[in-house]
């Protein structure tokens, strides 16, 4: 009888735990998403600390293990250790698995886990998943059916996320393998490096399995082009991939989000290349020693990688100060929403640019491609920029005070951390332990998203049933 009573008590306790988990997921999905990412970081920190994870079979210091875990799960690419030589094969496998898990996105991952626990994707879980494709879904207010992804399509979106991640990485690896062989990489080594590069490019991480990095392929346009295409696909976002798969030849049926993402991405890609070309063409340490064709190609490659890719053929520390500023601006913008890229996102920039243009023309509403962008989306965009700028400013001040390093180098690496880009002037690898923790926190806040972070802080959503008298302060 006692064993029966103990078994009944155990089942009751298990049911209570599952009920609590389901209530936690549905009542505060944003907090649950952040909790999942934090738990993954702690798990990978413990794994990276194991002696088997390091090449010399010693315990990796906590600060380095934690920073690597954050950079891996948040698909950033910054490192405080030499990623190619410090880790053992087991450690490299951890990095490979971590970036693919993190590449799925914090909200998408939380939705999948929530689906497993609750057995079905309920309304709030669908709102959570759709929130990754459209920040307004995680924001109060009415949402019409013309948004990026309808609630009924969320299940298909989650399937698209998983399938696109696997299929694109397999195709990219298959394309890279012969390129690596022609570059002189041994067949067995290329068999590992090809999927590794595929994962690091599509997730926009930028880690390399070899000490020389992509500089070994500086003259190999094929390999570098495949990496650029893979970075582009990862940076446009899963909702855009989802739209292209459904309506690839029907541009009129593309969502407004997809149009803004693709157009803004193309503009920034070309504009960034032109800027780098103008600023670096006479720099002997970077483009000055190249011919016209190499200079043009490398300018486009650098433009793509500063958006979020993280690979670099030239030494970032050798760039002119003006180029570092231009690169920092591109990194701050980042890629598309619900993508493996970071930053404030290209749609945020597009919405604000359209709003400014509409205000300059004296229009009452903000419109694009025959659609009106509601004011609450504009407020979210403005909030994202404000939160992002605040995080970057505070981190820059703290790290500059700790390291006493040149402010330009600190600002570049901090924005690279916030935008989860992975490019560095060399500062991150030399950070003292206290500064590395600050940088890791910056990466985490940049990856989980400022909107998600703000939503998690808010305990409840209150509806205001009255309005106060209007008074207009002087602005500008």
Automatic annotation (TrEMBL):
Bilayer topology reads: Multi-pass membrane protein
Q: List all membrane-crossing ranges.
A: 32-53, 65-87, 93-117, 221-245, 257-279, 329-357, 377-398, 435-459
Q: Where in the cell is it found?
A: Cell membrane
Q: Name one GO cellular component term.
A: plasma membrane
The answer to whether UniProt assigns keyword Cell membrane to this entry is yes
Main localisation:
membrane
Q: Which GO terms describe its biological process?
A: metal ion transport
Pfam families (alphabetical): TrkH
| Domain of life assignment | Bacteria
Please give one Gene Ontology molecular function term for this protein. Answer: monoatomic cation transmembrane transporter activity
Keywords for the protein's UniProt record, in alphabetical order: Cell membrane, Ion transport, Membrane, Transmembrane, Transmembrane helix, Transport
What InterPro entries does this protein's entry cite? Cat_transpt
This chain belongs to the protein called Potassium transporter Trk
Q: What is the lineage of its organism?
A: Bacteria, Bacillati, Actinomycetota, Actinomycetes, Micrococcales
